[in-house]
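Catalogue entry: protein
Contents: sequence, fold tokens
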Amino acid sequence: MLPFFFLLLSITCLAQTSSVRGRVSNEAGEALTGVSISVRGTTTGTTSDSNGNYQLSNLPADAVLVFSYIGYSAQEIRLDGRSQLNVVMREAARSLQDVVVVGSRSHNRSVTETPVAIDIIPIREIALTSGQLDVNQLLQLVAPSFNANRQSGSDGSDHVDPATIRGLGPDQTLVLVNGKRRHQSALINIFGTRGRGNTGTDLNTIPAAAIERIEILRDGAAAQYGSDAIAGVINIVLKSSVEEFTSSVNTGITKEGDGEQYQVNGNYGFRIAEKGFANLTLDYLKREKTNRPADPAVYDIYRRQFGDASSDNFTGIYNAEIPVNEQASFYTFGTFNFRDTDAFAWTRDADSERNIPAIYPNGFDPHIQSRILDRSFSTGFKSKLREWDLDLNNTFGANRFHYFVDGTLNASLLEQSPTRFDAGGFELIQNTTGLHLTRYFKDILAGSNFAFGTEYRIENYEIFAGEEGSYRNYGIIDTVINGRVRQVDVLGRAAGSQGFPGFRPENELSEYRTNIGAYADAEFDITSAFMVAAAARFENYSDFGGTLNGKLASRLELTDNFAIRGSVSTGFRAPSLAQIYFNTTFTDFVSGQPVDKVISRNNSPLTRRLGIPALKHERSVNGSLGFTGSFRSFTATVDGYYVRIRDRIVLTGAFEDTDPDIGEDLQALGVGAGQFFTNAVDTRTLGVDVILNYATTFGADNILNVSFAGNFNDLEIQNIATTPRLAGKEDTYFGLREQRFLLASAPPSRMNLIFDYRLRDWNLNLKFNRFGEIVLIDWLGEEDVYKPKVTTDLAIAKKLSENFGITLGAVNLFDVYPTKQDTETESGGLWDPVQMGIGGAFYYARLRFNF
């Protein structure tokens, strides 16, 4: 990379002729903090400080400055040699291209005026000094309330990272794209991962190159946005820029010399008529495996290959709007993502009964591979209906997860076994149609906003079988015993593809359900300093009935620089179709020994025989209270929260075939253990989010930003409810191991301290990340304690010319690893999949282009 770097340094810079400084304010003359100021077609940019001031140097004579801010219309102003340029930003209340800010449906309210906590993450600026190439990992290092983990040896969870807000479930966070509901992944996490027993949304199907910003609403919002919004809402806003081409080429490698990553992307937008646009993005990301096995001389090793999976990830995205007239426009956006992945499963030893030495004399490490196809398409019409803003939309989304197993065998086929199998998979399809109306009344009180609407959603979940050899036991034959035909296993060999047995024909299904919802939302500015918001939502599901939820929120501005805010709400989350219908037989490892297990679907005869009831929706009560304040160059937001969830859906522990109540049923199925999805747990979460920021300028070209962000979270399991038939079996139903997996959804504390310094064409970013202590239970029933750890990230960015820039940096600069355990962990390696990761130091370089 060094010759490449010095070659780039030799690029002749374009003529620089001027500098500019100024102040950015709203129409009332109030300073706006954090306004993005960029030079169109270049990598140059800055943000306004707490007094609204900004400064840029070494600009071309014909530079066009672009000013953008949440809740305000963007402005493009040609410099024309000026050295002083003050800008007044105008609210975007009447624009057809209204910005989307979660937490409020009022077009007249900026993000700083909302009564709930919202993070606005400008991806373009964050990506400048971040070595993370996928959205999940990028977000968890800038938003402490966001948690994402990479897995190892966890089947499909190795290929899709489970992600959460405030330590709740992945399926308790609703994801929107441009304000429209995003479909979830078809995958359900079933091993000892974060999000065990949950589905979630795969954020890595949308690359950072296509994203303008990400809005994170850290508050219960089911009454506003519907199911899955118990923990909050993530809204991904796609780029709408025009007449600008941006691209980056990224590469990196770990200190150990593996885990290589390569990424190339491009984004371009062009105008349609005077006010329309079409913005296109292509992105390709290749990630190689890491391998961090235990030393066999020290540990009783179960896995020779232990680390992150490899993947090839291709994405295409478009975002467009076409005006019809001054009052109406059509809009559409869509995503296409294809991911080809490869992860190592557990090692099969040479002398294992699951190995055929003639095929693998030294044993083998099966590869679990997946082909994930994710696509979505959204189209809509926005217009004025008298004085109301109307939005009619239809959004389709589908996620297909297809398994293959390579470097494996079916032991019951002996030497005749193939070494690669199609293992089947599953698919989730979702289509949502919505009608939304919003109107602002400036003469009611000090201003009021009303919104209401309705949505109709249809979902389909499908499981499709693999090829016969991926699941069949060829050693079972029919024989006559005492005059009756019985099936006998004459080989005693394990069936199906080792590493991941395929889905069987009896697992196949295609299930549908529908949902209709209606909501009303109102915000009242009682005075210019005091507002109250209320929302109510009714939803009815075809499979379990209806639910009504509400929310109240308020904000009181005590001074120009200090305000308090709070909310209280009820919420719900419908069980996903995967939680209701998923069923499979798979191989798990207990203390290194393989055990065939069955997960029985919720409405199966076996589940009913045990008295486990039909799944119902989770119910929540949310409360938050906090304040925002600023003093000169210092700003602070502190928000405490309370979340009580009843009837959380979990995956039970494994009931073995020796159990007196369920053993005979499992033996009849030929499996060693059975698990089920059930509403078993009540939880209570208390926490606080703290965000502090200090920004200052000194000298002619020096800009320093110091920020601290912390999440402090306490999750408590308050009740475990078994069925009458399984009373007294709480240790298996939802035992201590499963409880610790749930409690470890997020560290009890998570903190970032960031120093960002800019001097002319240079940008230095230093970040400290602290991960709190996590305690898990291993297969021997002993505690695995992961002590608090601090990692350090460093990035140096240099603008080489107006159109080129380079960033060199390191993630986890000092090569810090989690606390070492033994191979009795859930994953069979030296570490469980804790949030800080197990890859060690990662060094990267990024080349940026703007034209």
Observations:
- The longest strand covers residues 420-441.
